[in-house]
Write a structure and sequence with these properties.
Blueprint: H1 5-20, H2 35-46, E1 52-58, E2 61-68, E3 78-83, E4 103-104, E5 107-109, H3 113-132, E6 141-146, H4 157-163, H5 165-168, E7 172-175, E8 181-184, E9 187-196, E10 198-207, E11 211-212, H6 222-235, H7 244-251, H8 257-263, H9 269-274, H10 279-289, E12 292-300, E13 306-307, E14 310-319, H11 325-336, H12 338-343, E15 345-352, E16 355-356, H13 362-374, E17 379-385, H14 391-396, E18 400-403, H15 413-419, E19 426-428, H16 429-447
Parallel strand pairs: 3-6, 3-7, 7-18, 9-17
Antiparallel strand pairs: 1-2, 2-6, 4-5, 5-19, 8-9, 9-16, 10-14, 10-15, 11-13, 12-14
Helix pairs in contact: 1-3, 1-16, 3-16, 13-16
């Protein structure tokens, strides 16, 4: 694949400015202030004569939409969706200022460089280039710079699809992740994300009877019961799910045939993961093959000498494609036992079940072909991601949504994982250029 130097420089400079705007989303409604990046993108796109709209879901929480209208109302449409917010940062862990956007030795440094301001800048650059060169698609091409992805999309993609669907509706959507080179026994593979795990957070309220801490014998201490709840959740071992995406993933692992055979056997998979020398890798593999349960917040008690009568546990559950809210409750019944399950109050606090797009689509074929032109001979690995992206909202609305970009040969999976949400986050300019060309070419092939 040939990289255009002008487009690469443009996307790089746009990325640097977006990093410097510090649109940090800490999960509170008052954070994010994505209007800074939204206004930047709006002004920049309008400079090319494009019409833009912006939408405010709350003060400061702004998303931008621009469109190149197609000539055929019946032709499929394509949306390039990139988020404009970033996660918080701990500056003491960085060797450089995390919002400097510095370009050093061919890499742009700063929070959001990988997740995902580089891709958003590449999308905007590709979109403007197509407009500047008189691109006339059959179906609509949409650029969607969206707020609030880093806190679940409530004030971004979800709000937009719930309240302004016509502005962002699309048959096909490209968003973050994908395109990371993975070393396999047969060479390089590139991930193309077609599915993501679901979020099924639960609040568990454990009740007890208050009393004086000096006389604990025989009391109904909610904290003691809560400790048993947490212990059972930690010990719970749901049956692994040997789904087709897991089989693709295992096939591309650099493990012996014996280990890979064990990973495809639900009775041996957990032991195989426990024996891996790299337990960080094992953690990822476990999440791709299991519904997971992580009790992360516990609150209760008021005073050292008072037996607590209520303790609240917040539980992060991540589901696999095909699971339902009823399946989540069944998992909890099995993990806790019916008696303990019945004794506590269980309330869902966030439900976004797992989503998946099919592989037999024109967009899959187009993206695969373009990605392989950048890495000749690479296999394309359909991937399930363990976190969440805004793709799920489009999938739930009936769109085909993939996570796709293109990283250079030096940005291997282990490098990507270390920098994603990590200290010293940075991306090389070659990857920015490759991703920009991916979006230019995908739009041309899909819409003409």
């Amino acid at each position: 694949m040939e990289i255009d130097a002008t487009r690469t420089n443009t996307a790089t400079e746009l990325l640097q400015t977006m990093i410097r705007n510090e649109c940090v989303n800490d999960g509170t409604l008052e954070s994010g202030e994505e209007e800074r990046n939204s206004d930047l993108l709006e002004t920049w796109l309008e400079g090319s004569g494009l019409d833009c709209q912006h939408f405010d879901s709350a003060p400061g929480r702004r998303s931008i939409v621009s469109r190149i209208e197609g000539s055929d109302p019946d032709a499929p449409s394509l949306c390039l969706m990139g988020h404009t917010d970033v996660v918080p940062v701990s500056p003491e862990g960085w060797s450089r200022e995390p919002f400097s956007g510095e370009l050093i030795d061919g890499e742009v440094w700063g929070r959001g460089a990988i997740d995902m301001l580089s891709q958003t800048a590449a999308m905007a650059t590709a979109f403007r280039h197509l407009a500047d060169t008189g691109f006339r698609p059959k179906g609509d091409l949409i650029f969607f710079g969206v707020a609030d992805e880093e806190a679940g999309g409530t004030w971004g993609a979800k709000w937009m699809l719930d309240n302004n669907l016509d502005a962002v509706r699309a048959d096909y959507v490209i968003t973050e992740w994908g395109g990371v080179p993975i070393d396999t026994p047969t060479g390089t593979a590139l991930s193309l994300n077609i599915a993501e795990k679901g979020v099924a957070w639960q609040k568990l309220v454990v009740k007890g009877t208050p009393g004086h801490g000096s006389m604990p014998y025989g009391t109904d201490n909610a904290l003691v019961t809560a400790a048993e709840v947490v212990r059972r959740l930690a010990d719970y071992r749901p049956t692994p799910n040997i789904h087709d995406l897991w089989r693709h993933q295992v096939a591309n692992l650099n493990f012996s045939d014996d280990v890979k055979d064990a990973m495809l056997d639900p009775d041996r998979l957990d032991d195989a993961l426990a024996d891996l020398p790299d337990q960080m890798h094992a953690r990822t593999l476990h999440a791709c093959s299991h519904t997971t349960f992580s009790p992360n917040v516990v609150s209760g008690g008021s005073k050292t000498n008072t037996i607590p009568d209520e303790v609240i546990i917040e539980l992060d559950i991540r589901t696999l494609p095909g699971e339902t809210p009823e399946d989540v409750q069944e998992h909890l019944r099995i993990a806790l036992g019916q008696k303990l399950y019945d004794a506590i109050d269980v309330t869902p606090i966030h439900l976004d079940m797992a989503t998946r797009s099919p592989m037999d689509t024109p967009l899959w074929d187009v993206l695969s072909d373009i990605m392989q032109s950048a890495h000749p001979g690479a296999a394309i690995q359909p991937s399930l991601i363990t976190g969440g992206t805004d793709a799920r909202f489009y999938r739930e609305a009936g769109s085909v949504a993939y996570g796709a970009s293109l990283f250079s040969a030096g940005m291997r999976a282990e490098v990507f994982a270390d920098r994603f949400h990590g200290n010293d986050e940075r991306i090389d300019v070659e990857s920015i250029g490759l991703t920009t060309e991916l979006f230019v070419e995908a739009a041309k092939r899909m819409l003409t």
